[in-house]
Amino acid sequence: MNRYKYLFTSTKGLILTAISLIAIVTAIFNTLSGPMVEWGIRDITVKLLGMDLNPEERAGRIIMLYHTIAMAVVAIEVYMMTSIIPMRKHEQRNINMLVTIGYMTAMVFGLGFAYWGHNFTFHGLFLVGQSLVFFAGVMLAVALNPWKKEYYVTDKDFAHFKSGMDMERMAFFVMVVAMLISAGFGAVTGSFWSNGHETFLAEDLIRNPHKTHLQKSIIGHLHIMLTLIAVAITLVVGRWLKFKGIFHKIAMPFMIVGTIVIAGGVWSVVWTHMAHTFIYIGSVGVMLAAFMLVIFSWKKLIHDNSIELGYENPNIFQKLKALLSDPIKFGPTWQMVFMNFTVSGIGIFMAIKLEKIFRVWPAREERITLTGHWHILAALIATIIIMYYVDIVGLKGKVRKWFGWILIIGSDFAFASMTIFSMKKLFIPQDVAQQKLVNTTMLLTDFGLGAILVSLAIFLGWKLFDLFQADGLWKKEAEHAELDVERTSDPVLNIKRDNEFNTEGGEK
Amino acid sequence: MRKLIFLFIVAFAFASCSEEVIVNPEIKEVDTGVNPDEWVKVPAGEFFYNMHAHVDTIANDYEIMITDVTNKQYAKFMNEAVAKGVIKIDGDSIKGHHDGDKFDGYLHEWEIPAGEYLLMPFGEPGSHIKLVDGKFVVDKGFDNHPVVMVTWFGAKAYADFYGYRLPFEKEWAKAARGTDKRAYPWGDEIDGSYTNYGSSRNAIQKLLGGNIARTTPVGYFNGNKYEDFQTKDNRSPYGLYDMAGNVWQWVGDDYPDVHYRYMRGGSFTNYEYNLFVWARNSAGPDFYSINIGFRCARDVKEEAAPVVNDTTAVSDTIVIEIEEKINE
Question: Rounded mean pLDDT of A481-506?
Fold first, then answer.
């Protein structure tokens, strides 16, 4: 297999390609805002790349940038899903191909339109790219059809219906269908662009008492898409960490019902003020499912690592050591727990104290908290994806530990600092006294994010170096195309037809 | 080693979060040569409103202050108004009467009935007006800085006292933007020599002697050179200074279904996107902060002050712009 095939057709290579493209886009466009402006770096980027940054079009540019990154993240999740969920090889191949062409087209032409003049052919191709990603999603939903008997669970330790239907597959299916419908809320509104709908950033409308249906539709769209991306990565992580048994059986019904209720709630925001009630109920379901995964995985990590470390009857400290001995596997679920302090917890606190605290502050302060919490959720999801990828490529030993802890500590310091910064008025009501807190939180944020980005750059640099080796690790990754997981069902066993499914790399 | 790094970070975080209040009561006095008592006339007519640049119209000519209201002006107002019994000192604050807002009972709307409301706290860190021997005085060096820590009620009380009013959002926007589609009052570019905002504070702190971000004198960015700091002229097409940066400015609108009052212009704490002529902020009318001030408007009288800028060219521009829009 050559490098091209590895990068553009194998699951591991496709994930690497998408992570690298996101890293490049982030590295470039990160220089256009925040302190980079003060340091004059934005001017260098703009001049060097010949960008056209019309202030009036800032909101539109940001929206397109978010979309291009989101498409690539969705693609990564799709690659992971098509590998870890049993399906036919041709389905996997077609879905991966379509989503790859889709996100790349959306990324290249979306950014081209937004930042380098306004060639409307580029805008059209941006839409084509997104449409391809959408159709890949439709194909994924068809491939995930949980009613197909060959995909019924083969191990009763996995959550299943009485008939044997795989509940985890159903959870994936529900998530994908919800995402397709939710994408429609954005697409339909987008089709009214310049025809009754105008570009806006949701955070600029927070205090408008009257929003149009189209504006509400977009606000719902952006919230539910990120939520569903989080649901998807939770399910993927569950498979990676061999989620099964009683906790799996408790979690999956919660995940299925939670996803349906939360999505329905968000869609209903267009028509009713009651939407938040549904969203809270749905969130509880999804969060309980994630909580089950956390309990399961921590118990498993303690058990497995205690054996590895030679503890027969580990005491509390030895258990803790066992839990923390592999940061790459501990990290994803820890980030889910941490997410409650910086995202869900903040969201609930804001909702409860909206009138008494947040709506007393100036809108620009409330805006920082709002944009902060969803940026943090997006970034936490990114760290989880990176951790899984690091495990996929088999990073071992001290490098694995250092990389894992830098990711965890760096991101948690950064996001905790951002959370404190965004709510600074809560801790220090006097504006004039906030400067030290602002300086400290900003410094810690930069320190944390800097550590992550440098580590990621080194990691990707190593992968790039490896690609130039004739007999590099990439070759082994290409040969073992599928992600190594314990699948919930074995279609080969169910219908006795081999070589048709994506099961060769996984444990049976 | 790892423990040491961890301890260092924790110690650093705790040490940095101490609640030390820097009041910075005295700074260098700077004469900008700009007269804060000056007004300009903005003519009635069409202009491009907000981010999407919709053509909007203002029916009547109006006048607006070329700078924000200064500490000196506000202290004078408080001394005069207290003497006349229009406003009153209540503990550590100044209060005044507000007739109340029309309450629509809409979701999240607060009822604001008639009553006595906070105009400005004094003696709070960040405020540069103090009560000394029964008189309001301004901290040294801050006379010609924009008044801050003033609530919307406080801004309105000042305007009412002198027979002015707060500009409506549309009036503010036209005064800031003129009749073309610029993003900032002076054009489409921004850097630290145009105005006092989040990305320019270091240079300004050095000049004024302050060690935290704060206001600059009104009209400071007028093309003058202060020591080795060369400013650019940040006047809007009608000749208003500081319509972007320095302090947010309360505007007069009381919209239905909300209790909020709105602010325009961005401040010294904000990044540039908050300084766009269409950027908006809001808070309750009793909110005050170190980065919120105001300026006043008034209806045109026959003996109105002379217009600072010739607007003929601007009027020509809008005709062309509107024609282009229609053609599109």
Answer: 79
Q: Give the domain ranges of chain A.
A: 1-138, 144-287
CB A334 within 8 A of CB A408: yes
How many Å separate Cα A502 from the centre of its chain?
Answer: 23
* B241, two tokens: 């200074």
CA atoms within 13 A on the CB side of A114: 21
Whether complex ipTM tops 0.85: yes
Half-sphere exposure of A325 (CA within 13 A, CB side): 19
Which H or E run includes A433?
A: none
Interchain pair A431, B291: CB under 8 A: yes
In chain A, which residues touch B (CB < 8 A)? 33-34, 37-38, 54-56, 58-59, 198-199, 204, 207, 209-210, 273, 354-355, 359-364, 413, 427-428, 430-433, 435-437, 439-440, 443-444
Asked if the B38-327 domain carries CATH number 3.90.1580.10, the reply is yes
Q: Which residues of B261-275 are buried (b: 16+ CB within 10 A; e: fewer)?
A: bbbbbbbbbbebbbb
- DSSP letter at A472? -
Beta bridge partners of A238: none
The residue in chain A having the minimum alpha-carbon distance to the alpha carbon of residue B192 is A38
Taking only the tens place, the pLDDT of each residue in B47-65 is 999 999 999 999 999 999 9
Residue A436 and residue B15: Cα distance in Å, rounded? Answer: 9
> Of A262-266, A496-500, B260-264, where does mean pLDDT reach its minimum?
A496-500
- Look up tokens 């704060």; give the residue: B214
Q: What is the residue-averaged pLDDT of chain B? A: 86
Task: Give the 3-state DSSP-derived string for A208-251, with helices as H, strands as E and coil as C.
Answer: CCCCCHHHHHHHHHHHHHHHHHHHHHHHHHHHHCCCCCHHHHHH
Closest CA to A51 of A64, A42, A59, A60: A42
Tell me which chain A residue has its CA closest to the CA of residue B273.
A55
| Residue range A30-63, pLDDT digits in tens | 999 887 888 889 999 999 999 999 999 999 999 9
Task: Return the domain boundaries, chain B.
Answer: 38-327
Note the pLDDT of residue A434: 83
Residues 6+ away with beta carbon under 8 Å from B208 = B27, B28, B30, B141, B214, B216
Token pair, residue A200, equals 């806006």
The amino acid sitting at A218 is: I
Question: Among B216, B320, B53, B195, which residue's Cα sits nearest to residue B186?
Answer: B195
Structure-derived torsion over alpha carbons of residues A75, A80, A83, A88, reported in degrees to the nearest 10: -40
Of A33, A34, A361, the CB nearest to B283: A361
Please give the C-alpha separations between residue A227 and each of A169, A224, A270, A386, in angstroms, as whole numbers.
Answer: 18, 5, 17, 18
Q: Which region among A347-351, B129-133, B141-145, B194-198 has the lowest average model confidence (pLDDT)? A: A347-351
The confidence score (pLDDT) of residue B210 equals 58
Distance of CA A420 to the CA centre of its chain: 23
Task: Give the separation between CA A92 and CA A73, rounded to whole angstroms.
Answer: 17
Please tell me the distance from the alpha carbon of residue A237 to that of residue B47, in angstroms, as a whole number. Answer: 55
